[in-house]
Design brief:
20% of the residues lie in helices and 20% in strands. The chain is α+β, with helices and mostly antiparallel strands. Strands 1, 3, 4, 5, 8 and 9 form a six-stranded antiparallel sheet that branches. A three-stranded antiparallel sheet has the order 2-6-7. Strand 4 and strand 5 form a beta hairpin. The longest helix is centred in the middle third of the chain and has 21 residues, at 115-135. 36% of the residues are buried.
């Protein structure tokens, strides 16, 4: 069982621990390519070792992974040959950005400071991430993230720039949690650490109908092991940082 609540006295120590270089981790916040996608092939100079949670994370899913149908921002597409009704969600296409995208709702299960609550929150956070890049509305992701989360801040900035400045839109399902079981890496000093696996879906970006942005498409099909650092306060979780766990290290 994880801790019962937010310990203000230990917050500074936990935040410092979050930025320690744990063997096998690469900091996402320090480098992001490409700018407008959840990309984990990050080039970072070697990491120094330090004490920390067990980094081992062995996937159990098959190599030929079939991504799940995303929930929240893109549950389903209109069937072929049918016309979507007014107000019905319409995913982005080569000719138009997504329309009537549902706003992710904070799950009741994530109000509990338990492993089940952590899992429910992590699923919710990635819905807010996909929603931000699908709509340009970053408020749900910002609310679900701490101000100290460097990765979150960079993604909020990227989604805002993509929609408000570049006027681009994304065609693709975004980042999805795979069926690999979550692995909880809690410690006494930082009780909310979880390893997850993320599937990065193929994506293309458009600046106007049928005009694809060159050199920005994502081949996708990449599964990456991530370490998620959470904070729990006022009966809700927030993402405090996210790092890449290097395979085989």
């Amino acid at each position: 069982m994880v801790g019962s609540g937010f310990d203000a006295g230990g917050a500074v120590r936990r935040r410092a621990m979050r930025h320690e270089r744990v063997p096998g981790l690469r900091g996402i916040g320090s480098a992001l390519v490409p700018v407008f996608a959840l990309a984990f092939a990050v080039s970072v100079a070697g990491c120094s070792g330090s004490s920390g949670p067990d980094k081992t994370f062995t996937p159990t899913a098959t190599e030929k992974y079939v991504p799940p149908t995303p929930t929240g921002s893109a549950d389903a597409s209109p069937s072929a040959g049918s016309s979507p009704s007014a107000g019905e969600y319409q995913p982005a296409t080569e000719t138009s950005p997504a329309k009537n995208v549902p706003v992710p709702k904070y799950p009741k299960a994530a109000r509990a400071n338990t492993e089940e609550g952590q899992k429910a929150f992590i699923e919710y956070w990635f819905k807010t991430y996909n929603y931000a890049f699908e709509t340009g509305d970053t408020k749900p992701m910002a609310t679900a993230s701490t101000k100290a989360c460097e990765y979150c801040s960079k993604q909020i900035k990227s989604a805002t720039e993509m929609h408000q400045e570049k006027k681009y839109w994304r065609v693709g399902k975004g980042a999805l949690l795979t069926d690999v079981p979550l692995r909880f890496q809690s410690t006494d000093d930082y009780p909310w650490i979880v390893d997850v696996e993320i599937y990065d879906s193929p994506a293309r970006f458009y600046s106007s109908p049928n005009v694809e942005v060159p050199n920005l498409s994502l081949k996708g099909g990449v599964r990456s092991h991530m370490r998620v650092w959470l904070m729990f306060e006022d009966d809700s979780f927030r993402l405090d940082e996210l790092n890449l766990v290097e395979d085989g290290s």
